[in-house]
């Protein structure tokens, strides 16, 4: 799809996986073919710019056979963790949640790609492959709340954005179109207070609620709960979550023009509806969940994708202008063999993930004026609680979460503790206790440590009956807490720690602040109240041990947290070059033609799953990059009589507005 | 083969029709023989026979662990780690690590059927099916989305079920 010959007869920049030896100069180089990079390339390619996308990982997932291979890898994986369908790659290693293990008396040990030296583990992974981490995302797309953008001014903690909700609103809508969001805007507005333009509807009707959502709603809707004895009551309400997942198109969308869902990459007429495979994380078998490969299928032929190209350095001249990048091309992901190349462009866009972007800036010695590169690493620390309902609730069906409780995301309580959103988890104890596999093992008497004596075990009809009765009643709640920007949480590099190609591995220093821990204590108190209302049997246990690397004690209580996969903040944006890395266009203050896009730019993350906001930011930056390029090329365009083929070919083609073709194309 | 399935009925609580219908019974027999060796496997069959076919009454730890492993295999498609003592006693010349026997073995796991579910990532039941109460669960009032004709598909679905297939 990406290696089409250029229309003007020049050789293509390079085929898939082939270094672009023929053409070394582009208008834009995008580093990383994940969500942000794919969207930036889409917009700029559509506007006539020649874009080179360099992806460190392999590009097998964008064919149907490659997708089926990932499905089989997932089926056969011992632990069905987010990266389990995707093959390991020694040339472009990815962190994995299995790299962390808790120690018997507390504390943790980290192996794998990250080097970790913090008080607590950074428990999130990402994926270095074409499509990026969004290949294994859950697909939830809530917008951030207006008050999330100004937490310093409003509540006295963390960092403020140089933008507000109003600045981003139209880009949220553009992102909702691009990703194909199913949701109920009226409900989001009433229940959460999100402003939408009058009459706005999402492209698709909301994803149906799970039976579990209805059970919870019937018991808790309208009930006020106190998170501590001296706090005011907060009214509970189950609210449907917006998803980038194919549902029923809303005929009212786009002024009555409606919406056509995008099908699977490599099999476009497939996957136009979610069919309830219940494996969104780590892989949607039918690709009813958005992934960037769907957008790549509509890239203009001016966009060239080169996979297996690990950018090792951003090149800049003495005046601070980025010239291009140096990258390492490899053939075999298992062999430490590569060749080094350079590519040049007028503008370089880093879109490689928060941690990889920071790493590249640090390696290149760029954007260092503020001293903030790599600092302010954030995630959504997740507290899980789990229990058994009185009757079957149909776990392990449908998307992982279809509704949540949004009542604790906002309000003055943020002055003292981190806010949180509550996801009602449809997949039983899958995350907190590795069910249903662990249930089978436990009933059979199989212990985690093969050296320990085993129980007698139950077999036959009793085993079948007890599993059915127990698993069928499982449910859990996931509390996603906001983590604020703190300079001490950071990514650094250390020449002693390198990967197979000699690139530095991220060294991570991570901890949770007391305000996050107070948020967890409040979350647990709310969970206790909710379990009481549900008359559920609470099975939540937090203690040290191999499966609890995120264990800690706070004010006499045990807790254990997990990562959400929402790495952010490592090149945060601000309104001053002295205190932030990028401006509100995600453009490096120190380098006017170098952009760093993605969650790394976020000064605060609120409680919303961040991908939609990241997509909105990428679309917004694309507008600025288009203007930069247009300005750069203005002197060239006035040279009309020279017959200079090169100069003429540098004039971008007709530049349709990014909004003039709202319908996403699906290539045959 | 039929003998293995007969034994598996006692281990799993699923009848032989269900077990044959998974299509993986032969693969599991092969796996068990490969993992523990013919000798230990036949001893397991003999001891199970002596226990009246009830795996709960198996007394030898080796045979008991083989019973656990075969049951685990049926329920999850995964051959588990054996007890370290059993691994040693069998003198196995292979790593004592759990593994999924094949991608199909995972999707044929019996555990999902114990609670009327389907394997995560396969055998998708269809759009919106997760909204329905599972067997044995009471109906609850459903909040409907504004602008969405929720009632109509429900009525349609009821009609579909009015037919009798006998």
UniProtKB/TrEMBL annotation, chain A:
<protein>
    <recommendedName>
        <fullName>Glucose-methanol-choline oxidoreductase</fullName>
    </recommendedName>
</protein>
<dbReference type="Pfam" id="PF05199">
    <property type="entry name" value="GMC_oxred_C"/>
</dbReference>
<keyword id="KW-0285">Flavoprotein</keyword>
<feature type="domain" description="Glucose-methanol-choline oxidoreductase N-terminal">
    <location>
        <begin position="298"/>
        <end position="382"/>
    </location>
</feature>
<keyword id="KW-0560">Oxidoreductase</keyword>
<dbReference type="InterPro" id="IPR007867">
    <property type="entry name" value="GMC_OxRtase_C"/>
</dbReference>
<feature type="region of interest" description="Disordered">
    <location>
        <begin position="1"/>
        <end position="23"/>
    </location>
</feature>
<dbReference type="InterPro" id="IPR051473">
    <property type="entry name" value="P2Ox-like"/>
</dbReference>
<keyword id="KW-0274">FAD</keyword>
<dbReference type="InterPro" id="IPR000172">
    <property type="entry name" value="GMC_OxRdtase_N"/>
</dbReference>
<comment type="similarity">
    <text>Belongs to the GMC oxidoreductase family.</text>
</comment>
<dbReference type="GO" id="GO:0050660">
    <property type="term" value="F:flavin adenine dinucleotide binding"/>
</dbReference>
<dbReference type="GO" id="GO:0016614">
    <property type="term" value="F:oxidoreductase activity, acting on CH-OH group of donors"/>
</dbReference>
<feature type="region of interest" description="Disordered">
    <location>
        <begin position="631"/>
        <end position="668"/>
    </location>
</feature>
<feature type="domain" description="Glucose-methanol-choline oxidoreductase C-terminal">
    <location>
        <begin position="487"/>
        <end position="618"/>
    </location>
</feature>
<dbReference type="InterPro" id="IPR036188">
    <property type="entry name" value="FAD/NAD-bd_sf"/>
</dbReference>
<dbReference type="Pfam" id="PF00732">
    <property type="entry name" value="GMC_oxred_N"/>
</dbReference>
From TrEMBL, chain B:
<feature type="compositionally biased region" description="Pro residues">
    <location>
        <begin position="132"/>
        <end position="141"/>
    </location>
</feature>
<protein>
    <recommendedName>
        <fullName>Sorbitol dehydrogenase</fullName>
    </recommendedName>
</protein>
<feature type="region of interest" description="Disordered">
    <location>
        <begin position="127"/>
        <end position="166"/>
    </location>
</feature>
<feature type="compositionally biased region" description="Acidic residues">
    <location>
        <begin position="156"/>
        <end position="166"/>
    </location>
</feature>
């Amino acid at each position: 799809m990406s290696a089409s010959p250029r229309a003007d007869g020049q050789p293509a920049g390079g085929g898939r996986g082939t270094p672009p030896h023929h053409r070394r100069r582009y208008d834009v180089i995008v580093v990383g073919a994940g969500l942000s990079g794919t969207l930036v390339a889409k917009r700029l390619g559509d506007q006539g710019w020649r874009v080179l996308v360099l992806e460190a990982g392999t590009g097998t997932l964008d064919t149907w056979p490659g997708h089926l291979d990932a499905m089989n890898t997932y089926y056969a994986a011992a632990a069905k963790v987010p990266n389990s369908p995707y093959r390991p790659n020694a040339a472009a290693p990815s962190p994995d949640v299995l790299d962390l293990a808790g120690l018997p008396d507390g504390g943790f040990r980290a192996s794998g790609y990250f080097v970790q030296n913090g008080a607590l583990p950074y428990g999130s992974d990402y994926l270095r492959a074409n499509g990026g981490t969004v290949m294994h995302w859950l697909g939830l797309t809530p917008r951030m709340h207006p008050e999330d953008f100004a937490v310093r001014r409003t509540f006295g903690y963390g960092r403020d954005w140089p933008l507000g909700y109003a600045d981003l609103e139209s880009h949220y809508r553009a992102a909702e179109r691009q990703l194909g969001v199913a949701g109920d805007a009226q409900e989001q507005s009433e229940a959460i207070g999100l402003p939408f333009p009058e009459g706005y509807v999402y492209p698709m009707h909301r994803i149906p609620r799970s039976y579990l959502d209805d059970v919870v709603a019937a018991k808790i809707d309208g009930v006020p709960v106190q998170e501590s004895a001296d706090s005011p009551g907060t009214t509970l309400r189950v609210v449907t979550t917006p998803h980038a997942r194919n549902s029923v198109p809303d005929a009212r969308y786009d002024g009555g023009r409606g919406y056509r869902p995008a099908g699977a990459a490599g099999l476009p007429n497939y996957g136009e509806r979610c069919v309830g495979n219940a494996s969104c994380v780590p892989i949607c078998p039918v690709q009813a969940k958005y992934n960037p490969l769907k957008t790549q299928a509509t890239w203009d032929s001016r966009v060239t994708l080169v996979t297996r190209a690990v950018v090792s350095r951003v090149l800049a001249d003495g005046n601070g202008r980025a010239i291009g990048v140096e990258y390492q091309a490899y053939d075999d992901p298992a062999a430490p063999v590569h060749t080094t190349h350079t590519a040049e462009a007028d503008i370089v866009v880093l879109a490689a993930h928060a941690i990889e972007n920071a790493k590249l800036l640090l390696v290149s010695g760029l954007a260092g004026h503020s001293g903030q590169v790599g600092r302010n690493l954030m995630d959504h620390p997740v507290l899980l609680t789990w229990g058994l309902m009185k009757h079957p609730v149909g776990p392990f069906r449908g998307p992982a979460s279809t509704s949540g409780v949004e009542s604790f995301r906002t309000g003055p309580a943020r002055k003292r503790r981190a806010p949180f959103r509550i996801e009602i988890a449809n997949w039983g104890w899958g995350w907190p206790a590795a069910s249903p596999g662990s249930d089978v093992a436990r009933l059979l008497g199989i212990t985690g440590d093969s050296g320990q004596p085993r129980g007698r075990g139950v077999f036959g009809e009793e085993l079948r009956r007890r599993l059915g009765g127990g698993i069928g009643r499982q449910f859990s709640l996931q509390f996603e807490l906001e983590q604020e920007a703190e300079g001490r949480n950071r990514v650094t590099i250390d020449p002693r720690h390198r990967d197979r190609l000699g690139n530095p591995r991220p060294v991570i220093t991570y901890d949770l602040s007391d305000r996050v821990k107070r948020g967890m204590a409040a979350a647990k108190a709310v969970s206790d109240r909710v379990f009481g209302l549900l008359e559920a049997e609470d099975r939540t246990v937090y203690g040290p041990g191999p499966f609890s690397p995120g264990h800690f004690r706070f004010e006499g209580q045990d807790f254990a947290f997990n990562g959400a996969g929402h790495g952010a903040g490592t090149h945060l944006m601000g309104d001053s070059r002295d205190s932030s890395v990028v401006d509100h266009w995600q453009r490096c203050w120190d380098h006017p033609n170098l952009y760093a896009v993605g969650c790394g730019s976020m000064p605060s993350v609120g409680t919303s799953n961040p991908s939609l906001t990241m997509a909105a930011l990428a679309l917004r930056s694309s507008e600025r990059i288009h203007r930069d390029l247009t300005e750069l090329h203005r002197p060239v365009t006035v040279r009309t009589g020279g017959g200079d083929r090169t100069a003429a070919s540098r004039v971008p083609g007709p530049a349709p507005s990014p909004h003039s073709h709202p319908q996403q194309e699906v290539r045959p | 083969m039929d003998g293995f399935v007969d034994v598996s009925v006692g281990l799993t609580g699923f009848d032989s029709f269900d077990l044959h219908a998974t299509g993986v019974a032969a693969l599991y027999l092969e796996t068990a023989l490969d993992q523990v060796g013919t000798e230990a496997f036949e001893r397991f069959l003999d001891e199970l026979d002596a226990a009246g076919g009830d795996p709960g009454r198996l007394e030898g730890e080796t045979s008991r662990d083989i019973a656990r492993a075969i049951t685990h295999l049926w329920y999850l498609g995964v051959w588990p780690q054996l007890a370290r003592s059993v691994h040693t006693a069998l003198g196995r010349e292979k790593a004592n690590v759990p593994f999924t026997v094949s991608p199909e073995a995972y999707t044929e796991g019996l555990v999902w059927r114990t609670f009327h579910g389907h394997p995560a990532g396969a055998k998708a039941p269809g759009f919106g099916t997760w909204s329905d109460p599972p067997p044995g669960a009471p109906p609850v009032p459903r909040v409907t989305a504004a602008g969405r004709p929720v009632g109509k598909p429900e009525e349609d679905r009821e009609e579909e079920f009015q037919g009798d297939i006998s």
